[in-house]
Amino acid sequence: RMWAYTVGFTVLPHVGGFLGWFLTRKEIPEWYEKLKKPSWCPSRKVFPVAWTMLYTGMGYASYLVWTDLGGCGSKALVPLGLYGAQLALNWAWPPLFFGAHNLNLALMDILCLDALAIGTLCSWYRINRLAALLLLPYLGWLAMATCLTARVWKDNPGHKPGKSD
Questions:
Q1: Looking at beta carbons, which pairs linking 27-34 to residues 24 or more positions away fall under 8 Å?
Q2: Which end of the chain has the least Cβ crowding within 10 Å, N or C?
Q3: Longest dimension (CA), the chain
Q4: Confidence class of residue 26 from pLDDT cuts 50, 70 and 90?
Q5: What residue intervals traverse the membrane (predicted)?
């Protein structure tokens, strides 16, 4: 029976990630490719591989924390609440950026996401160090994604939110 919880927690982050990709996938070749991006922007082929690994790691880490806290009791409110909030902002970013073409809101979203992800890691470190360590690649990727979002925002000043180029 515990295997079902392990799989459920591990798969959960992928659900929103897949949905965000599915809803905005046509915007990548039609809109995103036309934006000015820095030379260090990763290839489009890297993103699905990276997110698959990152979502799997964070999902399994959430399972470890949930298990160590004995489920969703009062002790889990802050650590799993932070996780849920950062996951919601993570899932919101693609529709804001790719779907709405709103670079302003996407940048605000990812900056708040960074703070919540760091808060999640700090909260989890006291509960399960392995879970916290599993979030480190995610935080590294978020740092790059935040810099990329900020750079795209800065380098595309004529872009109007919600209006396609």
A1: 27/98, 27/99, 27/101, 28/98, 30/164, 31/98, 31/101, 31/164, 31/165, 32/98, 34/165
A2: N
A3: 54
A4: confident
A5: 6-24, 45-64, 105-127, 133-153
